[in-house]
């Protein structure tokens, strides 16, 4: 079990999912007919990407992951991010932070 976060820009309606952790049917129901533009996987541990293939397959979402974690994620990463890079969802800008540990 782990958490997944669905962010939605109120101005544009664009959605972004952080960590397709598990239960793809539940995630897809939450995403709804509006779909998602992107999925950000925070790191390579399996409990953060178990539903990633199903969610990306169903939505066509672009995938983001940290440069040092992407090789451990079994779904191709479209965009590699490093500390300080930004990811946008609608008019909202998120800043990636690399934390050791």
From TrEMBL:
Pfam family, one: Lactamase_B
Gene Ontology molecular function: hydrolase activity
InterPro entries tied to this protein: MBL_Glyoxalase_II, Metallo-B-lactamas, RibonucZ/Hydroxyglut_hydro
Keywords carried by this UniProt record: Hydrolase
Residues covered by the Metallo-beta-lactamase domain: 2-71
Signal sequence, start to end: none
Domain of life where this protein originates: Bacteria
Matching PANTHER family: CONSERVED PROTEIN (PTHR46233:SF1), HYDROXYACYLGLUTATHIONE HYDROLASE GLOC (PTHR46233)
Protein name as it appears in the record: MBL fold metallo-hydrolase
Annotated source species: Streptomyces sp. SID7499
Lineage, opening ranks: Bacteria, Bacillati, Actinomycetota, Actinomycetes, Kitasatosporales
């Amino acid at each position: 079990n782990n958490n997944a976060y669905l962010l939605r820009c109120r101005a544009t309606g664009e959605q972004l999912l952080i960590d397709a952790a598990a239960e793809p049917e539940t995630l897809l129901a939450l995403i709804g007919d509006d779909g998602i533009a992107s999925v950000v996987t925070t790191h390579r541990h399996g409990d953060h990407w178990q539903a990633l293939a199903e969610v990306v397959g169903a939505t066509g979402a672009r995938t983001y992951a940290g440069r040092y974690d992407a090789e451990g994620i079994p779904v191709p990463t479209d965009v590699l991010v490093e500390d300080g890079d930004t990811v946008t969802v609608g008019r909202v800008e998120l800043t990636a932070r690399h934390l050791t540990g």
